[in-house]
Design brief:
286 residues; two-stranded parallel sheet; two-stranded antiparallel sheet; 9 helices
């Protein structure tokens, strides 16, 4: 069975003397934050939180910066252990970006003297939608693919990061291939990027249905964390990885922590709003 061959997607930009290329990953990230903003704004205004919607741009900017910085720091500290890669073009790791975004958004919301739990409750829906869109960028550049696989829907990335050749995958991930295989052989892999796109859409659908919940604000973010932890834990079994912590990958260990944190948030925010004293709220005068 012949695999689907995927070539990198990029848009060349020519502005006089200024010329550069926007990769498919960059386009996907841009649309991921755009859809997250649209979902957040819609839900905040539906709930009557016009003040929070007014400051959504500031919070989104903090999320972008936190994602970029957190993703890069994770890449350097956990993956490469090389500070020179801090200024490389790639290396934006999701769990690092997620952590950085949460911290940066919390700081911005505190500065604006607003309600973190209120933003977090709609952020769970928005992140799931953005995740589904953002993962298409990994597909577009041939990154974060799965293990060697020759069944239905198998794909190959001849110009991936790295290319899905026996030699490149063995060097980058210590993947095991038959001894007689030519290192230059292009092999097919599991399209885990599309699996995660589908999983992101499922998470978004679940969270969207739950947006009318009667729990305290912030509960829905706990649901997202639980779903995201389960999703990533399972997908990692399909990914080609070599960053192991005992029998699990580092990402799976983080996924377990995120899922448990989600359960803790759900339990802490389980009471109806009128029965829950929200210590994270500072109510300024509009």
């Amino acid at each position: 069975m012949q695999p689907i061959i995927v070539r990198p997607f990029a848009i060349p930009i020519h502005l006089g003397a200024l010329q550069f290329v926007v990769s498919g990953f960059g386009v996907a990230v841009l649309f991921a934050f755009l859809i997250a903003q649209l979902v957040s704004d819609h839900e905040l205004r539906r709930r009557g939180h016009d003040l929070e919607a007014k400051h959504l741009g500031d919070v989104l900017l903090a999320a972008v910066l936190g994602t970029l910085i957190g993703g890069k720091l994770y890449y350097v500290l956990v993956v490469t252990h090389d500070w020179h890669t801090l200024v490389s073009r790639g290396g934006f790791v999701y769990w690092g970006g997620f952590t950085g975004a949460v911290i940066a958004c919390w700081a911005m919301i505190r500065i604006r003297k607003l309600t973190f739990a209120r933003y977090a409750d709609v952020a769970g829906i928005a992140i799931a939608a953005g995740y589904a869109v953002g993962r298409t960028g990994c597909w577009a550049v041939g990154d974060d693919y799965g293990k060697w696989y020759e069944g239905p829907f198998a794909v190959a990335f001849p110009n991936g990061i790295p290319p899905t050749t026996g030699g490149s995958m063995a060097q980058a991930f210590h993947a095991v291939f038959p001894p007689m295989m030519d290192p230059a052989t292009l092999v097919s892999v599991v399209p885990t990027q599309l699996v995660e796109v589908a999983a992101g859409l499922v998470m978004f659908g679940i969270l969207w249905r739950l947006r009318f919940h009667t729990k305290a604000e912030g509960w829905l973010f706990g649901v997202y964390a639980l779903l995201a932890g389960i999703e990533r834990f399972l997908v990692e079994f399909l990914r080609v990885k070599d960053d192991r912590f005992f029998a699990l990958s580092v990402a799976q260990c983080i996924a377990i922590v995120v899922a448990l944190a989600g359960i803790a948030v759900m339990r802490a925010r389980n009471a109806p709003p009128h029965q829950h004293r929200d210590t994270l709220t500072v109510a300024p005068s509009p």
